[in-house]
Amino acid sequence: TYLYEKALIAYPTYEEIYQNLAAAHVLLGEYDQAVSMYEKALSINERRGEVWNNYGQLLYDMEQLEQAEEAFVRAVAEMPDRPEPYNNLANIYSDWKQWEKSIGHYRKAIALSQDGAAAAVHNLTIVLRQSGAYDEALSLVDTYLERGENRTQWLLQRALIERAAGRPEKAERILASVQSKNTKVLVTWAEVLSQLGRYEEAVQRFSQVVEGTEES
After folding, report:
1. Model-level pTM?
2. What is 36-84 written as a DSSP string?
């Protein structure tokens, strides 16, 4: 931060320096100072959408969701063709259980992404599951399973959807088929086994987590 502060002496109205200094304070865990720097950058140039987005993410991490929403809305207004602020707004609406708004913003983020938007799709499947749209969530998961990438992540999501839909037997079969048995898989598997009354097997799965014998 020292070098950025020296730069500000020479260029006190250059908002990029304030943004970089804010990012440095975030890395140091100095959130209040980071907020101050972002607000200073925006007071110099309030049309910087990426600054609004970064500022909103900091506010979100600080659990100041109303203020974060306002920042992300401004980010969308300044860069309507970028997926990041839509995804971030969707996260907030998901936290508030405003499913329709969350789903709409995730869809917008996905539509604007050029790299497949796997992270936004993953978030969307979670919200679809939470809102009870199980068939649509399964369809999305299957699309990504067909690509053969991150199979453990998508199989876990499929199992969670089947369990939420009241089909724990299907969920258990999926979890048993997962090649990589990481902590999330084992814990979910144990929970489903408990739900099915297969308590000894559930204890075995929990024991693998406690003993640190899960596979990466």
Report:
1. 0.84
2. HHHHHHHHH-TT-HHHHHHHHHHHHHTT-HHHHHHHHHHHHHH-TT-SH
